[in-house]
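Translate sequence into structure tokens.
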Amino acid sequence: MSGPVLVGVDGSATSMAAVEAAAREADRLGVELQLTHAFEWSATRVPPGVPPWDPGGSRVHGSVNSALTEAERRARSAAPGLSVTRTVLMGEPMTVLETESRRASLTVVGSRPPSRAAGSRRGSLAVRLAAHGRSPVLMVRGRPDPAGPVVLVGDHGRGGRAAAEFAFAEASARGTDLVVLNGWDTRTGKPRNGFAATLSALRRSNPDIVVRRPRVRGGIRRAVVEASARAQLVVVGMNGRVGWTAASRTRISRATLRHADCPVAVIREEETR
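Result follows.
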């Protein structure tokens, strides 16, 4: 991956937390960080806070510049020496992030949607970006355990290769273990074969990473949420061809995004033909 790490900036506390996490990810990947602010401006709709005596929006421009300056300060504090760029784009925030994500290595969002992002509920933004964008999506939320493992939810179909590769890379970069939670075949009492083959191949190519596979009891959604309380990161995959509505109902991804106690990465699984 050579594209930048993309993060939306709106000046909120959750946005700034996302900026700090994005800076650390960009530093790990060795790519630049792109700070992006988007706002809508038309003849019939102007951004909030524009007074009638200031049709040019100088107050808004000042606010945007202030938010980006603070975001850049936090990014450089989190990752000294990091290359940081700023972009201000016209458009609905959700649409802007979708478009910009197509050239990004990773898109990072806070647990609260950016201002006026199509009324997105918690978690829906990350799912929609994963479905319609072209990069992995990291939603920053909760309080990650710095000593905890990376948790991979290995129940994605198609072998879950992209999500598994992302999880192994994160575990390696963080110097921590990888915990794999996946669905079991109720007929055989064994993990589903497609994912088992993917995992075996990645374990052989990453011998230094300790991989743990606890037996899931009581339902995988509950197990994932409980594991997130002791994890640095949870990684889930999503079918690359499902639409937003179907994706938002994905039984594991949605529950994880809404209830996890640590950041969650949603990885698009491209279908092969």
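Note: The domain at 5-140 is CATH 3.40.50.620 (Rossmann fold).
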